[in-house]
Design a protein that fits this description.
- The protein is 53% helix and 5% strand.
- Helix 1 (31-58) packs antiparallel against helix 2, helix 3 (118-127) packs across helix 4 (134-145) and helix 3 crosses helix 6 (195-203).
- A hairpin with a 6-residue loop joins strand 1 and strand 2 (27-28).
- It has 2 domains: 29-92; 109-211, Winged helix-like DNA-binding domain superfamily/Winged helix DNA-binding domain (Arc Repressor Mutant, subunit A, Orthogonal Bundle).
- The longest helix is centred in the middle third of the chain and has 31 residues, at 62-92.
- With 212 residues, it is mostly helical.
- Strands 1-2 form a two-stranded antiparallel ribbon. Strands 3-4 form a two-stranded antiparallel sheet.
Length: 212
């Protein structure tokens, strides 16, 4: 999954892994889910910017309040454009059926679960000083997990480029952001550990050591 160079975007960074197809169980791009995730991320980013602006204004940090207000304005503009695109997309694709993705159905429980990637991801980020680009993070995760990954994890997805385990790890990253273990406002293409993530890693250090 190639990512653009690191930069912080006004609307926040959203990285979407390939979504599982409900028909086949094989990973495939789910447009509706992608729109939902993007919209939710933007709405949360807007709320965060508004809250930060309010706090800064109340505490007399007027320059920070101005910056937060400008950020909120930019996010609002992106949110409106995305909502319009969602409506347009729905209209344009009405009555069409997406082609069935390639690949065999993967029975539930046969691939390595997302939770198994939590500690390797956190450990890799800690080794890298707290953050790093996706490719390097996943390379380190692979080094830690290669002896435990199953045959099905190494299969290529319908894009014929991405190994299934990397997509699972990307979904794990998404869940970790929701749980506060990884930063939600990292530069695009970069994953960063949070203090909560470090605490989680420390709490499960014995489990991590036993996996090596």
């Amino acid at each position: 999954m190639e990512e653009p160079g690191p930069r912080r975007e006004a609307a926040g960074s959203v990285e979407l892994p390939l979504a599982p197809s409900p028909e086949t169980g094989e990973e495939n791009v789910d447009t509706k889910e992608a729109f939902d995730v993007l919209l939710n991320e933007l709405r949360q980013a807007l709320k965060n910017a508004q809250d930060a602006g309010t706090r800064a204004f109340q505490e007399g940090r007027f320059e920070e309040a101005r910056v937060a207000a400008k950020r909120a304005e930019a996010i609002t503009g992106e949110l409106k454009k995305l909502e319009a695109l969602q409506r347009q997309w729905s209209t344009l694709t009405q009555g069409t059926k997406a082609p069935k993705p390639k690949g065999r159905r993967v029975p539930r429980g046969t691939k390595t679960p997302q939770e198994a990637f939590y500690l390797p991801i956190l450990a890799a980020l800690e080794e890298m000083g707290g953050g790093g680009r996706v490719q390097e993070v996943l390379d380190r995760v692979e080094a830690r997990m290669k002896d435990r990954l199953r045959d099905v994890d190494w299969q290529l997805l319908s894009d014929e480029r991405t190994a299934r385990w990397r997509n699972t790890a990307a979904w794990a990253r998404y869940e970790m952001v929701q749980q506060g273990l990884l930063a939600s406002d990292s530069p695009r293409g970069v994953w960063e550990i949070t203090e909560a993530g470090r605490a989680y890693l420390q709490e499960h250090q014995a489990e991590l050591s036993s996996r090596r």
